[in-house]
Design a protein that fits this description.
Number of helices: 8
Pfam family, one: Cellulase
CATH architecture: Alpha-Beta Barrel
Radius of gyration: 20 Å
Structural class: alpha/beta
Largest sheet: 10 strands, parallel
Helix content: 10-25%
Organism: Phytophthora nicotianae P10297
Keywords: Carbohydrate metabolism, Cellulose degradation, Glycosidase, Hydrolase, Polysaccharide degradation
Family: Belongs to the glycosyl hydrolase 5 (cellulase A) family.
Distance between the termini: 14 Å
Strand order of the largest sheet: 12-14-15-4-5-6-7-8-11-13
Shape: globular
Strand content: 15-25%
CATH topology: TIM Barrel
Protein name: Glycoside hydrolase family 5 domain-containing protein
Length: 412
Amino acid sequence: MPDYQSKNGQIVAVAANGTEVPIQIKGVNWFGMETTLAVPFGLWENADNGTTAYEIAAFLARNNFNAVRLPVSVENILNNSPPQKGVINLSSNRAINGTDFISTLQTLVKSLAYRNIGVLISMHRLTNKKSGATWFDEDIGVTQDDFLDAVDTVSSNLCGQDYWNVMGLDLKNEPEKATWGTGDDDDFVVGCEKIAKVMHGNCPQWLGFVEGVVSTHTVTIGGEELEYYDWWGGGLQKAGNTQPKFTIENKVVWAPHYYTTAVAPQRYFYGDGTTSDFSTYVELSDEDLLARVEGTMNDMFGYLADDKNYALLLGEFAGLYTKDAHPKKTTKRTTDLTIQVLMEKEYAGGFMWSLNPESEYQYNPADTEGAFTEGMLLDDWLSPNSEFLDAFTPMDAMPNLRKFPCFPIEDR
């Protein structure tokens, strides 16, 4: 299997003979394994809707997507929970072994490997219902040892030539109440080092994808001082000076999140005259919105792309798109401009949220709360959401966007 490395601002697959292949990511999130279903949504193929793992892989390959981020839960890993009965059509998904959680994950990875699609496993939730605001929470029954046991299980069972397309772990999704560099129990820098040590003990070839923490900051854009709150997973302001030290070099990938009004309205997406509760909002011009998106991205994490050291990509971004109810389409434009910035700043790519048509958002437009759904696929799980799909076409121009390389096994 490749040795996945993070250097020169890129993810690099390194063969046993030293051949290096840089890879940029045009990826999707496909959720479900972090829930009580214990399997990605959509594999229930029936008369009304649903699909197969091979069809998902073929769809992604046809549209130049080369990677999938799969959220999982500590609870499902430790219990080795089989998928909920009836949520996989086993006759059409014969490639999936749903005996238990690990066999489901293993065979899903193999199904994606058939199309040379890479996999990032996200340590997403502590339980099937609760994400956890850091990488452990004894109040909901998940200790540090529990989390590390789950990492040990995944990294010992998904490493090797059969699973060559797994690039690593997103070490903890959205640690929004963790600290950074404090030395306390909730210090995510220390947490990442502990998690990566276990992971690399089993699988030294894997990368550790590191998200940010959350706080309030100020940034000056266009001569105006703006206050902003980090997107969950997005706050990497301190990472320039304080970074996790893994036992193996070139293994850190920065993987922050950046979203739109659909997740939570942000004052910096709007102009003068916008009220604090967004009951009145003033949409910006394309030029001014770009300045706000670029300025906040750069302050949160984008500056890390400048030194061309570790790879920087977006672990989650986008969201509601074609259904944007803003008159001037602020939510939709924010996604378009996010892609523009990651391209211009030469990020290592990103994983859009999400493939699932059940993806739910809370605001549309800024002054209206509700439950608004949209994904890369329509409700039948077969038809593409064409306008949303096309939004990611600019990423096809990334110079190192390619299928994940399956290197030949060399005789020893």
